Amino acid sequence: MKNTKRAKLEAAGWAVGSVKEFLGLSDADAVLINMKLGLSRSLRDRRKKCGLSQVQLAEQLQSSQSRVAKMEAGDPSVSMDLLVSSLLLLGATSADLAKAIRGGEKGKGRHAA
Amino acid sequence: MKNTKRAKLEAAGWAVGSVKEFLGLSDADAVLINMKLGLSRSLRDRRKKCGLSQVQLAEQLQSSQSRVAKMEAGDPSVSMDLLVSSLLLLGATSADLAKAIRGGEKGKGRHAA
DNA sequence: TGACACTATGTCTGATATGACATAGTATTC
DNA sequence: GAATACTATGTCATATCAGACATAGTGTCA
């Protein structure tokens, strides 16, 4: 994956799902980014639902507030592994993750919700 | 994630799903490993279905045969990102990935106890 | 206003994953 | 057996990611 492309997307202020290949972004890249964004959103939701601050979550994860922020921001520097293991630590199940991944996709043929 | 634990598991010849916490393996770690194994299997299946050798797939991925082998072997040194983007390049959809992830899980939902 | 809690962003250093290469194992065919 | 194609495993240099820290932005409340 080329993180630089994603950075460009974000710099441009785009919600990735809506662009597809507005840049040189390959389909696979776009889908991967959408999956990550789905996980990001899921993480934030779950954290809030648990009534935790980023600092508190960071403690649970044995990480730092800045990393949590980046995770939730969909920063290119965070891996899927980190997102997933964080979600798991928050009690997400495989089914939850599967849903988050599919929720991250923007509809391949149509953009129907 | 602690890759060392997984290495130990594999060294012991275990299919991860069957052990849960036979080692100091946390629940979250176990689930993550199972998800990766699900993706590994899915990758091998998809490659074979496409009639590709590891070398050929490696070319498509702009990677190397050894890395493909490790991916399919569930080697601890391969990330979820790599597995997922490889699968996407082979034409898998988000839905396919979601299924592979859930397929990788062994038991009931981990949460309720 | 100031103080406070929360979140965002940039950067550093150490850890880990990556592709590449070598090499060994496994069939299969001649 | 030799030769071929495919796959597995180990190692290495480099690229990327991790946690940590500083610091800036945001919102709330007294």
Give an overview in words.
The structure is a homodimer of 113-residue chains. Chain A has a single domain, classed as lambda repressor-like DNA-binding domains (434 Repressor (Amino-terminal Domain)), CATH 1.10.260. The first copy, chain A, is built from six helices and no strands. In chain A, helix 2 crosses helix 6. The first copy, chain A, is globular and about 35 Å long. The two termini of chain A are 26 Å apart. Chains A and B meet through helix 2, helix 5 and helix 6 of A and helix 2, helix 5 and helix 6 of B. Chain A binds a DNA duplex (30 and 30 nucleotides) through helix 3 and helix 4.
Secondary-structure blueprint:
The structure is a homodimer of 113-residue chains.
Chain A: H1 3-11, H2 27-49, H3 54-61, H4 65-73, H5 80-89, H6 94-104
Chain A binds a DNA duplex (30 and 30 nucleotides) through helix 3 and helix 4.
State the name of the first-level CATH class of chain A.
Mainly Alpha
Indicate the percent of residues in helices of chain A.
Answer: 55-70%
The separation of the N and C termini of chain A measures: 26 Å
Name the CATH homologous superfamily of chain A: lambda repressor-like DNA-binding domains
Rounded Rg of chain A: 14 Å
Q: What CATH architecture label of chain A applies?
A: Orthogonal Bundle
SSE string of chain A: HHHHHH
Low-confidence stretches of chain A: 107-113
CATH topology of chain A: 434 Repressor (Amino-terminal Domain)
Largest interface summary: A-B, 27 and 28 residues
Strand content of chain A: under 5%
Structure class of chain A: mainly alpha
Q: Overall 3D geometry of chain A?
A: globular
Task: Calculate the mean pLDDT score of chain A and round it.
Answer: 81
Largest sheet of chain A: none
Whole-number count of domains of chain A: 1
Q: Oligomeric status of the shown chains?
A: homodimer
Number of strands of chain A: 0
